[in-house]
Amino acid sequence: MIVIGMVLFERMTQLDLTGPLEVFSRMPDTTVHLISKTLAPVQSDGILRIIPDTTFASCPKALTVLFIPGGRGISNILRDQEYLDFIKSRGNSTYITSVCTGSIVLAACGLLRGYKATTHWLSIELLAKFNVETAGARVVIDRNRVTGGGVTSGIDFGLTLASILCGEQCAKTIQLLMEYNPEPPFNSGHPDVAEKSVIKMVMDERVETQRKRLEEIENYILQNS
After folding, report:
1. Candidate list 59, 100, 109, 166, residue with the active-site label
2. Which residues pair with 134 in a beta bridge?
3. How confident is the model at residue 225 (pLDDT cuts 50, 70, 90)?
4. Domain residue spans in the chain?
5. Residue-wise pLDDT tens digits, 53-72
6. For 12, how many CA atoms within 13 A lie in the half-sphere containing its CB?
7. Topology of domain 2-184, per CATH?
8. What are the residues facing 99 on neighbouring strands?
9. Distance between CA atoms of 150 and 122, rounded to whole angstroms?
């Protein structure tokens, strides 16, 4: 039996969670726990509210997969010892995983020390602050650490992990059932291919958010060094 624990928190990015969740829900002999402090609905950083089914206290001690999504709410996680302690307590999971800036949370918990990992392209330099070897790939596998890039890469991440846990044929079947055959309307999904004017617009819009997050991470590292 595969047991997957997906950690929920306020202002997480829902697609970071629901992309891989869609894949996991189709895997055979798999139980998925949506974990939070309490069973109260969790507000994403968009419209969707998600209902946990497991608390920190009731979560199984042994997980096949520990999963952390990203989103604006990671800033609060870095200040929430209860979340950090829970994540650290499941550091013995068979696979330690994340999508988007969830890898920053893993790094803050010391779970990416000595591993290569990825995150959203805007936050690669922030992840490197934790002395993590970073890579700009959509999915990075380093032994039992599996990390996905930004937001939509969660589906690629989910299928990759499904192939590890259940075999390539199973993952291919899930991909076909999901009709995951992306043909994006614009060639603008990564700074390697997007127009310079679009990249500048995105970076200009996020400059203050990224500055604040850098400050939060540097403070966290200073306080925990």
Report:
1. 100
2. 117
3. confident
4. 2-184
5. 999 999 999 999 999 999 99
6. 29
7. Rossmann fold (3.40.50)
8. 148
9. 9
CB 131 within 8 A of CB 111: no
Helices (H), 34-188: 74-77, 81-89, 102-108, 124-128, 153-166, 168-177
What tens digit of pLDDT does each residue of 14-37 get?
999 999 999 999 999 999 999 999
The three-point CA angle 211-37-128 to 5° equals 30
Active site residue 100: yes
Non-local (6+) Cβ contacts of 23 within 8 A are 155, 158, 159, 161, 162, 174, 178
Instruction: Report residue 169 as tokens.
Output: 């044929």
Q: Which two tokens stand for residue 156?
A: 């690629």
Q: What angle do CA 89, 90, 91 make, to 5 degrees?
A: 95
- Residue identified by tokens 């068979």 is 94
In 8-76, beta strands by DSSP E: 30-36, 42-43, 49-50, 54-55, 65-68
| DSSP label at residue 150 | S
pTM: 0.97
Residue with tokens 């937001």: 151
Beta-carbon count within 10 A of 186 CB: 9
Distance, CA of 152 to CA of 150 (rounded, Å):
6
> Among 70, 127, 129, 137, which Cα is nearest to 100's?
70
Distance, in Å, from the CA atom of 103 to the CA atom of 180, rounded to the nearest integer, reads 24
The phi and psi torsions of 22 (rounded to 5 degrees) equal: -60, -40
Residue 192's pLDDT band, with cuts at 50, 70 and 90, is: very high
